[in-house]
Amino acid sequence: MMDFPLLSVLILLPIIGGAALLLCKQNNKLARQLALLVSVATMLLSFLLYIGFDSTTHQMQFVERLSWVATFNIEYYLGVDGFSMPLMILTTISTVLVVIAGWQVIEDRAAQYMSAFLIMEGLMLGVFAALDAILFYLFFEAMLIPLFLVIGIWGGPNRVYATIKFFLYTFFGSVFLLIALLYLQFQAGSFSILDFHNVSLSLTQQIWIFLAFLIAFAVKIPMWPVHTWLPDAHVEAPTGGSVILAAITLKIGGYGLLRFALPITPDASMTLDWLVIGLSLIAIVYIGFVALAQSDLKKLIAYSSIAHMGFVTLGLFIVFRITANEAITIGIGNGQVLAIEGAMVQMISHGFIAAAMFLSVGVLYDRMHTREISAYGGVANSMPKFTALAVFFAMANAGLPGTSGFVGEFMVILAAFQANFWYAFLAATTLILGAAYTLWMVKRVFFGEVANAEVAKLKDITAREMWLLASLATIVLLIGVWPDPLLNVMHASVDHLLMQISHSKI
Amino acid sequence: MLFALPEMLMLAMCCIVLLVVAFTGNRRIMMVHALSQLTLLMTFLTVFWMMGDGGLTFSESYIKDPLSDLLKLAICLVNMLVLSYSYRYLQDRNLLQGEFYVLALFATLGMLVMVSAHHFLTLYLGLELMSLCLYAMVAMHRDSFAATEAGMKYFILGALASGMLLYGMSIIYGATGELGIEAIAAALTNEELNQTVLSLGIVFLVIGIGFKFGAVPFHMWLPDVYQGAPTAITLFVASAPKIAAFAMLIRILTEGMGDMLSVWRDMLIMLAVLSIVVGNLLAIAQTNLKRMLAYSTISHVGFLLLGVLAGSQAGYAAALFYTLVYALMTLGSFGMILLLSREGFEAEEIDDFKGLGQRHPWHALMMLLLMFSMAGIPPLAGFYAKLSVIKSVVDVNLLAVAIVAVVLSVIGAYYYLRVVKVMFFDKPTQQPHIQAPVSVQYLLSGNVLAVLFLGLFPGALFALCARIFS
Predict the structure, then answer these.
(1) Interface with chain A: mutation pick from B377, B383, B453, B464, highest number of A CBs within 10 Å
(2) What is the pLDDT of residues B121-144, one digit of tens each?
(3) Cis (ω within 30 of 0) for the bond into B378?
(4) Is the dihedral of CA A378, A383, A389, A390 positive or negative?
(5) By CB distance 3.0 to 4.6 Å, which of A220, A376, A403, B466 could disulfide with A253?
């Protein structure tokens, strides 16, 4: 099992499959079938990661290590731990959903569309599996190319502006990451991320490196105030693009903080935790209000994504406050574990819920070709099956107990209480705000009088859409009532991370 | 003396081509083309066959070392591609004349001499041979107002630069009493030399080199020449001469003046940073693709200088890698303009690429790869070129320079993205066919795929570059 290069296969299969798709130029039917085949195969293979995963250790697993650019000591170094493995499975599942969601919708250059998503899948899996800093950067940047094209070619009317803004924003963030990685290599003598974890740095060095990481990943997450590209990109992107953006690319920002900022610069993270906590709380509260004011369905969900990602960054950085409060008790308390695991669960859960929300909007948009909330009303009358599912996802988005949305937020809020009452108080307002903007949207779109003749003529979802949404609902519900399978795989990694950040590097 | 065999062979063949042209005029242009390609191929093979042992010849004024071998191979290869890409374009414009081949071959010979020069005078000889041919080539399209203006500008500014370089050489000669590269390096170890005079000499040398590279503030000629010259000539001027200029830079500054690193480093920092800033900012405003690529060249020159000014072996190796990758990318992008041009139509405005993604998806994909490579996005060769020079700068603790460079490269990404944007996001306004022969299309695709391949597996070339400077 260990000898089989599972991670390489996972990364290369979709990339090669995507390149092969480019060959079936006009044959949309064949392209779709091939894309589905490749994405399902990748998904099934990724389940092997979960089956073969040893959750008792924090060590990297499924490791593959080859020299790549010997002159610079850059390696082809892959491996997964409890943080990256769940995110990889999230990636493969999301891609299957995107392929199915684009089945009848994308008629224009379908082969290229599917190909872009498959290549993107391979690159995103590479981001999560890379343990060499340059390899990570390579996947991290290369991912922009297909997404840039997806938004620019298949997007809405203002797509060019949105996609260039998206590209330049993220590229701007990541060049600082590159400088930081080069500087770290200069200090550590290798590009291995695990070596970076052990290199000792003075506080000043750490602060600069931390700021570089923060810029790179804050743009991706995105945190207030560098979030402005996200609503534009989401609104203009085709449904599949929105799903991938929300489900995965945002998670790469959170993952980057986990993998780079916290363990490499723990002292700087502790010194500057007020900054991240402050920005997270602004994201949760202020962006919550902004979401309330949206008249565009996709924009509303985009802003709610920013608010939800605020929980992830909050969870990651209140750890330091909890530690400070428990200075007397030695060792790692329950609060820190709760905070980090809460952040992780929130990432996974938001991946599925946001994907479901965007797919639901996609269902409406395909029929009505508008995203304006005011154009809808009384959809429940003509689309009862769809309404049931969409309302369920809306509830999950608002953090209803029993859904996965509740688990992560609740864990982070609980942990926040151990850090500072007011953090917890402010974070908890999301339960009200989230419910307010989501349910108000549900009311305006699905319930009430049938708004116009077009809504009355709406056809309910097809079997394809039904399966798509139902499977997502099952996952959301499963994580909601039984998060243990997810939590168990990350315990060891979380403990290890907490140990790393509790040791000063100065 | 045998070390100069490739150049002698080249010279002999140049004369043969000259005679053939003189007697047949333009009637047998196909044959001249084939003969020129054969000349380059033979030179390439000779250099390849003689690889390995090296040494000095012609009273230590000529050197054959791994650096010269690699650069000569690159120059021959690049020029073979240039001639292949240009053929149809020149034919359509009635420019396919014997002079073109004669001048191109003599220019190539000049480049080879520059690469192997181990003496200031040999270097100057090679430089002038190359430059004079280039001036004439730029002005070859006699009826074109822009081309003659470009040729004139190039000639006057180029002559000025050569003068500066020569003046710098004479000052160095005055200070050290030597003209040979190695002799100067030995003389510089003497502490009693007048440092002020030496520094003055270096200023003029750096100005001369800056002119030839087109580094800011000596870049004025570059956009006009790139835009004004027929695209095939632009391609020739933009690719191989940069490789030769790199050799000149290495021979003079690092091999000859290595001990004066602290003096010329600050100058190069200024040239590099200004080039990156000005090149990237001015490129944004361009609507003409050739002019945009000219400004992008200026910024690439800035990046290349970053590697040299690091003053480390890793830095020189990085700059060498950058030069080679730059030549490959430039070949590809101007080759693409040539490919899309046809009789009576120049595909040199950015808008001429509108909707290429729908008209010719494969060529649009190739252009996309080139643009992303130039912007420094992985997994393409341009990324590793940028990575290696920035790494070498970070390694000598010039962090501020590195940060300026990467921030400006984000701005640079914008204008490359604009080309991708018009190709893929805009609707086509015209439906022309590509008239270039299939073989050239394959060649161009191979060229671009090489950029992708070098991005995925840069290890071998990196190792080669590192070995040359170790």
Answers:
(1) B377
(2) 999 999 999 999 999 999 888 888
(3) no
(4) negative
(5) A220
Closest residue of A to B372, CA-based?
A: A145
**Consecutive H or E run containing A338:** helix A334-368
Confidence check: pLDDT of A422 > 70: yes
A23, A112 Cβ separation under 8 angstroms? no
CB contact under 8 A, A183 and B394: yes
Closest partner CB to B378 (pick from A72, A142, A167):
A142
Taking contacts as CB-CB distances below 8 angstroms, the residues of chain A near B394 are 179, 182-183, 186
Burial class (CB in 10 A: 0-12, 13-18, 19+), A504: exposed
Render pLDDT for B361-420 as a digit per residue (tens, 0 to 9): 888 889 999 999 999 888 899 899 999 999 899 888 888 899 899 888 888 888 898 888
A66 strand-pairing partners: A76
Q: How far apart are CA A338 and CA A323, in angstroms?
A: 12
Which of A71, A73, A165 best tests the B interface by mutation, with the highest count of B CBs <10 A?
A: A71
Among all residues of chain A, which has the CA nearest to that of B423?
Answer: A153
Query: What is the nearest CA distance from B404 to chain A, expressed in angstroms?
Result: 11
Contact (CB, 8 A) for B308 and B316: yes
Per-residue pLDDT, B438:
82
Range B276-315 burial, b when 16+ CB lie within 10 A, else e: bbbbbebbeebebbbbbbbbbbbbbbbbbbbbbbbbbebb
Per the CB < 8 A criterion, the answer to whether A359 and A101 are in contact is yes
What ipTM did this prediction achieve?
A: 0.85
Q: What is the pLDDT of residue A416?
A: 86
pLDDT tens-digit readout, B404-415: 998 888 888 888
**Separation CA B239–CA B214 (nearest Å):** 13
Q: Is the pLDDT of residue A464 over 50?
A: yes
Instruction: Tell me if B249 sits within 8 A of B116, measured CB to CB.
Output: no
Residue A270 CA from chain centroid, whole number: 24
Q: Beta-carbon neighbour count of residue A381 at 10 Å?
A: 16
- Give the gap in angstroms from C-alpha B444 to the nearest C-alpha of chain A: 19
Q: Which residues touch A16 (CB under 8 Å, ≥6 apart)?
A: none
With beta carbons under 8 A apart, name residues in chain A contacting B469: none
- CA distance linking residue B376 with residue B387, whole number of Å: 8
**By the 8 A CB rule, do B110 and B133 touch?**
yes
CB-based contact A179 B390, cutoff 8 Å: yes
Cα B259 to Cα A237: distance, rounded to the nearest angstrom: 56
Contact A153 B424 (CB under 8 A): yes
The pTM of this model reads 0.90
